[in-house]
Design a protein that fits this description.
The complex is a heterodimer of chains A (about 260) and B (about 210).
Chain A lengths: L2 H4 L8 H14 L1 H5 L6 H4 L10 H25 L39 E5 L5 E3 L1 H5 L4 E8 L5 E10 H7 L8 E6 L4 E5 H4 L5 E6 L2 E2 L9 E3 L12 E7 L19
Parallel strand pairs in A: 1-10
Antiparallel strand pairs in A: 1-2, 3-4, 4-7, 5-6, 5-10, 7-8, 7-9
Chain B lengths: L24 H27 L17 H28 L2 H6 L4 H12 L13 H25 L5 H6 L3 H28 L2 H8 L2
Helix pairs in contact in B: 1-2, 1-8, 5-7
The chains are: A alpha+beta (about 260), B mainly alpha (about 210).
Chain lengths: ~260, ~210
Amino acid sequence: MSLRNTVRPTVELSALDRRFLVKEAERLLPMNARRRFLRGGITLGGLAMLTGCNVTDTKMAETLLMRISRFNDRVQGWLFDPTRLAPTYPESMITRPFPFNAFYDMDRVPEVDGESFRLQVGGRVRQPGSWTLEQLASLPQQEQITRHICVEGWSAIGRWGGVPFSVFLQRVNADLSSKYVAFRCADDYYESIDMPTALHPQTILALTYDGQTLPPEYGFPMKLRMPTKLGYKNPKHIVEIVVTNDYPGGYWEDQGYNWFGGS
Amino acid sequence: MSTMMVSQARPAAAAGARVAVAQPLWVRVTHWINALAAILMVLSGWRIYNATAFFDFRIPNSITLGGWLAGALQWHFAAMWLLFVNGLVYLVLNVATGRVQRRFLPLSPRAFMADFTAALRGHLSHDDLTVYNAVQKAAYVGAVVLLVLLVLSGLVLWKSVQFPLLRTLLGGYEIARRVHFLAMCGLVLFFFVHVMMVILVPRTLRTMIRGR
């Protein structure tokens, strides 16, 4: 299914309008439209060796690649050394301005009222409940200047501050033998990480950016900052945290991006 | 050495003579697996490069593999196993069988220059396909070095935190991206020259398929 066919305009539109329509549709239909990644991919890749490339083969290749991606999750979990630290940088190396990046444009950044905000915590924790921003700010804080690496390849150095996530998990008496920590966000993003990464000494529940309250475009009220993970693994605008043993997936992972997604 | 010889002489060959195998089976198998893996890696890698092009150009999407970034990454991180495991088998067998010394050594700059000039003048003989000339030796060793560099720089991009020494040696994450890309360029250049030479001396293709 080609995206262009699904949004073919019924009236004559200028090329610009058409481009906007496609862009808009891409935003609205990320799942189905983007899942076409193999269609055309194999044939256009000029891979004549994969002969008889029909829909069944494509489905099989897709399934096989997804399976290898899950295998890679296990290998990466095994390669992950929980004590190995990501490099840190001097303040002079901070990328200014730090790039804004999301699956939507800047004008769609969610507005969260900090006064009434409550972070919900649930799942395999002995003290489920809600947290105000003030309560979170009263916990031990930690700062880091680290490199944010995007799955697209680019990287930028930034400065985040907040609660070491392992401290937070201990405060809520989380079952640290659980497999996953899942996040739900104010912008309908959702994400999940492995427990060893959640407990990594550089994983922080970031409340500040560059010494200031975390601005909306960088994830107010809070972002999980992990220098050991790619950008998309670092959820912004977190409103709920759940400790679980059931694989929660993630916004991009469910479309084909690797779940471990990090170093 | 016995594995290097065929057990039965072909009727066309001189009576009783044994025809030397130019490429043993394991070389042929690893060669073609490597060719497939490298093509998959390069085509999907182009798509990944396009996500954030750091040079002033993009690769036309129509000649890339994966359809979009996630698909390209899936291909890349699947084909890497093929490239890595196959490459390891190739290297280990090359050393273990002594093929490295036999076919790639000695390799001197002087011999390379002499054969290179001879090649340009069309004076280089390909009568005996069991022997590489110095230009071939340099090209094949160069391709292997590029592949090793691609794997190492790829490791820094994939696992920059887990391999700090490698990261430092390759100049950090951002430099490693460029190294990875330029090594790819070198490999693609090798590919085109390699294929061109095969077209000029088609018998080499036969040896890489049938062994002799």
